[in-house]
């Protein structure tokens, strides 16, 4: 396994990855609308040079915000390694907080982040309903057949 920063040369591969996994490279969150292929990030590459994980982020005045984190092979530490790389970036930039938003159905993400010292800071009821106005292809139902309606903000203090 190797972790590399995303580069301009990866644009097509990143675009295809997000289209395959998220429907498009556009993410609509309470904090804004992001074209994830334009964001900084890191990729996890396996020994066959295949992308098996990806994290993207944006910088705010006082915090770093994770926009996406995907691991194609669960429970092998790839997501954790990518998360640590982003936490290192935040520390290098002198930031003391990382934030990430997930949806109410994503129990796996809630478990993943909370096990790594992130805590629930805010809940945005109906945020996904509003996001569908900009991105109508956001599914109505998610993991475990839970209706997707709300966003949950998790924060980690560094």
Written description of the protein model:
With 158 residues, this protein is an alpha+beta fold. Helix content is 27%, strand content 35%. A 7-stranded mixed sheet has the order 1-4-5-6-7-9-8, with helices on one face. A two-stranded antiparallel ribbon has the order 2-3. It is globular.
Give a brief outline of the structure.
With about 160 residues, this protein is α+β, with helices and mostly antiparallel strands.
What order do the strands of the largest sheet run in, or round the barrel if closed?
Answer: 1-4-5-6-7-9-8
pLDDT < 50 stretches? none
**Proportion of helical residues:** 25-40%
Taking the sheet with the most strands, its summary is:
7 strands, mixed
Mean pLDDT: 93
């Amino acid at each position: 396994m190797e972790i590399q920063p995303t580069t301009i040369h990866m644009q097509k591969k990143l675009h295809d990855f997000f289209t395959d996994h998220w429907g498009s490279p556009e993410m609509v969150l309470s904090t804004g609308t992001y074209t994830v292929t334009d964001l900084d990030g890191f990729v996890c590459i396996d020994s066959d040079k295949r992308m098996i994980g990806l994290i993207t982020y944006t910088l705010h005045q006082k915090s770093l915000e994770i926009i996406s984190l995907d691991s194609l092979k669960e429970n092998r530490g790839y997501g954790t390694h990518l998360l640590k790389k982003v936490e290192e970036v935040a520390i290098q930039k002198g930031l003391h907080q990382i934030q990430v938003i997930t949806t109410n159905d994503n129990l796996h993400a809630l478990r993943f982040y909370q096990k790594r010292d992130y805590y629930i800071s805010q809940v945005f009821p109906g945020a996904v309903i509003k996001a569908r106005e900009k991105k109508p292809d956001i599914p109505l139902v998610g993991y475990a057949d839970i209706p997707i309606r709300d966003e949950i903000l998790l924060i980690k203090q560094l």
